[in-house]
Amino acid sequence: MVFNPTTDIPDLAGKYILITGGTAGIGKESVRALAKHNPECIYFTGRDSKRADEIIAETKSSKVVFLECDLTSLASVQAMAQKVISETDRLDVLMCNAGVMNVAPALTKDGFEVHFGINHMAPLLIKLLLPTLLRTAEAPGSDVRIVSLSSQGFVTHPGGGIIFKDLKTTQGSGIVQAQRYGQSKLANLLYAVELARRYPQITSVSIHPGVVRTGLVSGQGMFSKALIYITNPLSTMTPVDGARNQLWVATADKQSIINGEYYEPVGKRGKHARKSRDVALAGKLWDWTENELGSF
């Protein structure tokens, strides 16, 4: 599908948008592209305020607002969500873009395996912002969307899909690095499926952006980086191109999008594996997540 953000994104007048991880890579390009189409407000998160100031200056818009947030900390995510809630009673697009890939075994500040803790942090943000999203969805002519950044790499998940009993360990001796990443990306995909089932009034989808030349790839070790480029020799792309798929699902005609679906670039229904179609696993992930986030 040919999709040109400059000409194909419609007028976004009145829309409130929140993008996590918006200070670099495809998150940054999403902020830049959407800011050109007259939204009421774009919130974007990150940890680098200097980069954020540069993005705001580039867009030349007082409607682009930076919210500092550390995704290794649930308390930081909660504070950021409360800031949004205090400033607006409307949210039209939540783009859960931030993430990490193939990092060393570690725990987040709340004790979760680092890939799962950061890449699957979206549920806390979604949980806290869900009343605002649902209220927006009740308005006549509304079109509320949640876009979750998954990856074709979900297929590297461990046997069983998600090893729930070990998610509060580094899993350093249990599964290899790529499996920890794949597990978290499978979670992103399944959570979007369950969101669509439970809240059909909101369009919830997951996407694979493509293999993008961002810090996620350039920061890999020599072997991992070589494997990425060898297995995708013709498909690596710039961040500008890599942002197109999430921009498409965030702004395309609602009738062209299947709620709960997983999309590959651009606008193509993605290739699934057995676990990515596992309804029971999606339900188990939802229940586990609700239990872990019960105190928030």
UniProtKB/TrEMBL annotation:
Q: Which InterPro entries match?
A: NAD(P)-bd_dom_sf, SDR_fam
Pfam families of this UniProt entry? adh_short
One GO MF term, please? oxidoreductase activity
Matching Gene3D superfamilies: NAD(P)-binding Rossmann-like Domain
UniProtKB keywords: Oxidoreductase
Q: Which family does it belong to?
A: Belongs to the short-chain dehydrogenases/reductases (SDR) family.
Instruction: Supply the name of the protein.
Output: Oxidoreductase
Source organism of the structure: Roridomyces roridus
